[in-house]
Amino acid sequence: MPIEKSEYIWFNGTFVSWDEAKTHVLDHGLHYGSGVFEGIRAYETKDGNSAVFRLKEHVERMFRSARVLGMMIPYSEEKVREAVVETIRKNGLKDSYIRPLVWYGYGELGVHARNLPVNVVVAAWRWGKYLGKEGIRTKISTWIRNNPNSFPNEAKITGSYVNATLATNEVRIAGYDEAIMLDYRGFISEGPGENLFIVEKGRLLTPPISASILPGITRDTVMVLARDLGYEIREVDIHRSKLYNADEAFFTGTAAEVVPICEVDDRKIGSGKTGPITKRIQDEFFAVVRGKRQQYKHWLT
Question: Which pLDDT band holds residue 244 (cuts at 50, 70, 90)?
């Protein structure tokens, strides 16, 4: 989906115009993928204000990702949270997608990443549905998720998304909406940018952290909401045939939100339409982010 330009980007502590948010072509992060980032959404709530969804958890995860790289972010978590809020406010946005990005900058060019400047930006813009709200067609990619001894999958590191790009390109060229990826053992892992759930006999099943997944914040949100709605949830390894025979399946993610999966490898999942449990969770999720559920107001900034 094309980016709709906003007016300002927060760049290393100050606001610059969108077109002036520039960096050097010899930045380490550009050459080696040595950066970390987050995808965050803000929603217009029922009272007309804009609220950032689970801002604290997103910023905490970005700092954890940076520690995996041995990177010191030159701002506090509080300052980054403030930058997110101010970027939304300064651009006059209601519904928006927010991208904080941290990367090693210009200095030395070599794989060794030490004594380099660390750049931090926060951009926000209007952005609609990534995959839509209706059922999508998926295909299991030939590209597998990174082995945890090859790459720290629990960190949201820019370079890791080459793996996701390869899988996405493969299945979209073949005419599908999104990829599903296996882990290094052959079990279901996740989508290129989404976690995955299936419904089996009224229970929700989702791959565990050990299946090379990113611990998604929307994934965690859905687990909390589903339990509060009375559903049993289990984190278990899911093999391909269990996915094929699921009653329902759906993706979760900040960009994707909650998206039903209607087909996998040209096989209908359940009825081939949005299932009742998926629909209920989807509806509850959007009620929460729009500020319609008092018990989850602590997730809104």
Answer: very high
Average pLDDT for 18-45: 97
Residue 129 pLDDT > 80, yes or no?
no
Range in 54-58, 107-111, 115-119, 123-127 with the lowest mean pLDDT: 107-111
Predicted pLDDT at 178: 97
What domains does the chain contain, in order, with CATH numbers? 8-125 (3.30.470.10), 136-289 (3.20.10.10)
Quote the tokens at residue 287: 């009620």
To the query of whether residue 156 is one of the catalytic residues in this protein, the response is yes
Q: What is the mean pLDDT of the chain?
A: 96
Q: Which residues are CB-contacts of 214 (< 8 A; sequence separation ≥ 6)?
A: 153, 154, 156, 190, 195
Establish how many alpha carbons lie within 13 A of residue 168's alpha carbon, considering only the half-sphere containing its beta carbon: 10
Q: Round to whole Å and give the CA distance between 129 and 132.
A: 5
Residue whose entry in the numeric block shows the structure tokens 């790459």? 151
CA distances from 17 to 13, 82, 164 (A): 13, 18, 30
8 A C-beta contact, residue 216 and residue 195: yes
According to the model, what pLDDT value does residue 132 have? 65
- This prediction has a pTM of 0.95
CA distance 153 to 141: 18
φ/ψ bin of 150: left (φ > 0), alpha (ψ from -120 to 50), beta (otherwise): alpha
Determine the distance from the C-alpha atom of residue 124 to the mean position of all C-alpha atoms in its chain, rounded to a whole number.
Answer: 15
* Bridge partners for 124 per DSSP: 98
Instruction: List Cβ neighbours of 212 (8 Å cut-off, separation of 6 or more).
Output: 145, 146, 147, 148, 153, 183, 184, 189, 190
Rounded to whole angstroms, how far apart are CA atoms 130 and 259?
9
Tell me which residue of 187, 181, 176, 188 sits closest to 160, measured CA to CA: 181
Q: Which of 156, 201, 273, 279 is catalytic?
A: 156
Residue 88 has a pLDDT of 98
